[in-house]
């Protein structure tokens, strides 16, 4: 397969561009691409450019070729609202959600979240998750990068989106997605933390107009539930 790279900046229509240090390091030192090898660059704004790697000493450049307008985005505008999960579970969720076509990811702090983030630590983790999203786009062929929004407490976030269309996964607390009308515009899917939602949080979701749904009689782990829900929505209304 031809390697795909996100180019963090505007790509000109033709000519040669210098590869940013991080991109060049990944291409030359990690993937060990050689001078003249084909590659694909995309800037995250839609479309991609065929290119060839040019190596001069330790620096990397790209000779730009044809630009293609390719839209691999899902017709659904799903925002995955994921309660913070511990360890590397959030990395997994971000990566796989991007592969499944999510429009954006909103991390939220829930009462039973094992992981607690604030201040500089939260900012660093957000930047890391955004880079995970970039890498997932490189792998999956997406040319638009979903945004990972800054972390917010659940209840204030619910107040800000009150009245918008959304679902909250609550094992044993509702019906499935079957029979729901295809959404017009953005739809939010809320996933609880390892310890599950509290009754107060579920009540806040109810008050915001979000409908409780279930994915059947089994209880999913937090890192599985959102991905399963995205797959269901893509099969029901999207491009699966």
From TrEMBL:
<feature type="domain" description="Ribosomal RNA small subunit methyltransferase E methyltransferase">
    <location>
        <begin position="73"/>
        <end position="234"/>
    </location>
</feature>
<feature type="domain" description="Ribosomal RNA small subunit methyltransferase E PUA-like">
    <location>
        <begin position="23"/>
        <end position="58"/>
    </location>
</feature>
<dbReference type="Pfam" id="PF20260">
    <property type="entry name" value="PUA_4"/>
</dbReference>
<keyword id="KW-0698">rRNA processing</keyword>
<keyword id="KW-0808">Transferase</keyword>
<dbReference type="GO" id="GO:0070475">
    <property type="term" value="P:rRNA base methylation"/>
</dbReference>
<dbReference type="GO" id="GO:0070042">
    <property type="term" value="F:rRNA (uridine-N3-)-methyltransferase activity"/>
</dbReference>
<dbReference type="GO" id="GO:0005737">
    <property type="term" value="C:cytoplasm"/>
</dbReference>
<dbReference type="InterPro" id="IPR029028">
    <property type="entry name" value="Alpha/beta_knot_MTases"/>
</dbReference>
<keyword id="KW-0963">Cytoplasm</keyword>
<dbReference type="InterPro" id="IPR046886">
    <property type="entry name" value="RsmE_MTase_dom"/>
</dbReference>
<keyword id="KW-0949">S-adenosyl-L-methionine</keyword>
<keyword id="KW-0489">Methyltransferase</keyword>
<protein>
    <recommendedName>
        <fullName>Ribosomal RNA small subunit methyltransferase E</fullName>
        <ecNumber>2.1.1.193</ecNumber>
    </recommendedName>
</protein>
<dbReference type="Pfam" id="PF04452">
    <property type="entry name" value="Methyltrans_RNA"/>
</dbReference>
<comment type="function">
    <text>Specifically methylates the N3 position of the uracil ring of uridine 1498 (m3U1498) in 16S rRNA. Acts on the fully assembled 30S ribosomal subunit.</text>
</comment>
<comment type="similarity">
    <text>Belongs to the RNA methyltransferase RsmE family.</text>
</comment>
<dbReference type="InterPro" id="IPR046887">
    <property type="entry name" value="RsmE_PUA-like"/>
</dbReference>
<dbReference type="InterPro" id="IPR029026">
    <property type="entry name" value="tRNA_m1G_MTases_N"/>
</dbReference>
<dbReference type="InterPro" id="IPR015947">
    <property type="entry name" value="PUA-like_sf"/>
</dbReference>
<dbReference type="InterPro" id="IPR006700">
    <property type="entry name" value="RsmE"/>
</dbReference>
């Amino acid at each position: 397969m031809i390697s795909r790279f996100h180019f963090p900046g505007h790509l000109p229509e033709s000519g040669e561009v210098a590869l940013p240090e991080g991109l060049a390091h990944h291409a030359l030192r990690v993937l060990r691409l050689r001078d003249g090898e084909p590659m694909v660059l995309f800037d995250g704004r839609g479309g991609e450019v065929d290119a060839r790697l040019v190596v001069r000493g330790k620096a990397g450049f790209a000779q730009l070729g044809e630009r293609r307008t390719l839209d691999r985005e899902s017709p659904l505008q799903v925002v995955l609202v994921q309660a913070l999960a511990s360890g590397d579970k959030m990395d997994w969720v971000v990566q796989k959600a991007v592969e499944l076509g999510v429009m954006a990811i909103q991390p939220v702090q829930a009462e039973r979240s094992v992981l607690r983030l604030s201040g500089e630590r939260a900012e660093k983790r957000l930047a890391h998750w955004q880079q995970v999203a970039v890498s997932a786009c490189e792998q999956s062929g997406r040319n638009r990068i979903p945004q990972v929004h800054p972390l917010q407490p659940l209840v204030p976030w619910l107040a800000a989106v009150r009245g918008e269309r959304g679902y909250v996964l609550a094992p044993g607390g509702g019906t499935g997605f079957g029979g729901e009308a295809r959404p017009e515009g953005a739809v939010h899917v809320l996933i609880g933390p390892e310890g599950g939602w509290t009754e107060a949080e579920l009540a806040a979701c109810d008050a915001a107009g979000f409908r409780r749904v279930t994915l059947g009689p089994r209880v999913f782990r937090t890192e599985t539930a959102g991905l399963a829900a995205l797959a269901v929505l893509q099969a029901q209304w999207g491009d699966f």
